[in-house]
Structure formats: C-alpha cells, structure tokens
Input
Amino acid sequence: MTESDLKFVQEHVNALQKRVRNACKVSGRNTTDVTIVAASKTKPAELIRAAYNEGITCFGENYVQELTTKRDQLIDTDIQWHCIGHLQTNKVKYIAKFVQMIHSVDSFKLAEEISKCAAKNKRTIDILLQVNTSGEESKSGVEPDAVLALAKECSMLPNIRLCGLMALPEPQDDIEQVRPEFRLLSSLRNEIQNTLHLESFIHLSMGMSDDFEIAIEEGATLIRPGTVVFGARSYNN
Output
C-alpha cells in the first residue's frame, strides 16, 4: 500500500461527502438522513482504515469470508459492518456475532436463520428485504408484489429488526432510467410502513457510485458507493 493509494481514498471520501451534502441540499433533506455504506469488496483493510479516518464508519461487504477477515483486521475500530451481498443461510452463523445490518434478505428461510443465529449470540440484527425492482431473472430479491407478505412474516421473528428495503437496479447507460426503480422501492417502503406500522421500517438502501445522487433525491437513507471511494475493484487480489 503506497502513500498515493491512501491519499487517493482520502481525497475521494472528501469529494463524496461533499457530493452527498449537495444532493441533500438540492433535495431539501438533512445530511444526517443519509448514511454512506462504503462498498469495500476486494479492497484491503489499509484502504478501509483510510476511509474510516476520513469519517466513513459503515462499510459493506459482499462475501462472508472477506467480511470476517476484514472485521478481524480492523477490530480496534468502531466500524459498523454491513452485509450487502447475497447471503446463504449456512453462512449466517459466521457474521451473526458482529454484523450491524444485512441488506440482502430475500426469503423467510434466510430471515429465520438470522433470527436463530442472533438469538444464540444474544443480539438483535437489523435486516433489509431485497426487492428485485428490475425484473431481471439473474437478480436476487423478492418480487415487488410479494414483499409485503414477506415483511409480515419477518416482522413476527424475534431477534431481528425489520428496517426497510434494498434494491440493486439494472445498470443503465442513462442513469436517469434508474429513477423509476428507486421510486418503486420508496413506494413499497411506504406501503409496508402504512400497513404494518413498524417504527423501525424507515430505510431505503439504494444508490451506488454512478447513481447515488438520484437515489438521494428519491429518498435513499443508505447509499452504497464503492468505486467512487476506492477506485476500480481489484479482482486479482
């Protein structure tokens, strides 16, 4: 890890924070309403620490092994670790001791396993339901017309707190084309809030490096930028 790598992250975190503040101002929202969950997949602990030192306290990882390794390497910090990738039920036990939030719950079976593992660790784990807003068959997530029923089931489980919805929109050449998916997620969140009256059901996890400003305009409370913080991912590492 070179000084230039660390400086790159420092400068890009500061630029991102400024863009988030500007997007909130344009949208008439408070900056405190939006949390940056930096997507740190493939990035080493040293770069995560550099981002943390600039004020990022939440980091999202896609893979359980990478998540647990980095958590151990940065155990001296108060980083909040989020699982933002597809999660298999047999992997929940490895992160149940420490994970702050799981964004990618798309079945009652997975929610039930999270509940069981949280109970074993005497914890309550925050979860989001992932919605397939794009209709792509290759994407994980519950269908929009089934998410209310899943939310009802999950709300009855102990040791989890149902906190909102997450989506991973279809990539578009024109980023404005993702706006309808963000609006769909927001409307689904509002419908579930109004139906189930869950005080904790406030979050919309949506928006990444290319479209987080549009996501903020459409009500995102959690954004997941990665490359805009750390640069291109290094899959060979």
About this structure: The beta strands are 35-39, 58-61, 80-83, 101-105, 125-131, 160-167, 203-205, 222-223. Residues 3-229 form a domain with the TIM Barrel fold (CATH 3.20.20.10).
